[in-house]
């Protein structure tokens, strides 16, 4: 079971961004799901096997990346998430910091993204082992 590949959900309203991230992450050996809307993201999250959520801050008018992350964390309080954005207000940055969500600015530096993913997944693994999981 410990050999299973981490499952990453990428949520972005730009199809080319989803394709790019999916390809890069699959090349790194991750299992990747892609969602183009908060509704699609919720459907994947309900299945319950997501290890990490990469989510665009700006989704539909009524939904933000924070809403999707909150939904995921309501289902799994230990869900790690990264917020991706072209622009984040001071309020958004402060909220992300308070909720322990790293923020990466577009255009995303792929090496930085991969490094953040590795660090978050390592923390997940360590905390699940510490809790006997």
Overview of this protein structure:
- The chain has five helices and five strands, in the order βαβαβαβαβα.
- With 133 residues, it is an alpha/beta fold.
- The chain has one domain: Rossmann fold (3-Layer(aba) Sandwich).
- Strands 2-1-3-4-5 form a five-stranded parallel sheet, with helices on both faces.
- Helix 2 (38-46) runs parallel beside helix 3 (65-75).
- The N and C termini lie close together (11 Å).
- The mean pLDDT is 93.
Going across the major beta sheet, what is the strand order?
2-1-3-4-5
**Class inferred from helices and paired strands:** alpha/beta
How many alpha or pi helices?
5
Assess the beta-strand content as a share of residues: 15-25%
Taken in chain order, the helices and strands follow as EHEHEHEHEH
Number of individual domains:
1
Poorly predicted regions are none
Number of strands: 5
Q: N- to C-terminal separation?
A: 11 Å
Instruction: Determine the fraction of residues in helical runs and give it as a percent range.
Output: 40-55%
Largest sheet: 5 strands, parallel
* CATH-scheme architecture: 3-Layer(aba) Sandwich
Shape: globular
- The CATH topology is given as Rossmann fold
> Rg from C-alpha positions?
14 Å
CATH level 1 class label = Alpha Beta
CATH homologous superfamily classification = Response regulator
């Amino acid at each position: 079971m410990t050999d299973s590949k981490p499952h990453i959900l990428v949520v972005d309203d730009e199809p080319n961004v989803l394709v790019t991230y999916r390809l890069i992450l699959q090349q790194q050996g991750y299992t990747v799901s892609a969602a183009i809307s908060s509704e699609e993201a919720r459907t994947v999250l309900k299945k319950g096997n997501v290890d990490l959520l990469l989510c665009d801050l700006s989704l539909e008018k009524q939904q933000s990346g924070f809403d999707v992350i909150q939904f995921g964390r309501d289902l799994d309080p230990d869900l790690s998430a990264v917020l991706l954005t072209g622009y984040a207000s001071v309020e958004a940055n402060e909220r992300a910091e308070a909720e322990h969500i790293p923020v990466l600015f577009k255009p995303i530096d792929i090496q930085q993204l991969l490094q953040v993913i590795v660090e978050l997944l390592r923390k997940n693994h360590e905390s699940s082992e510490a809790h006997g999981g």
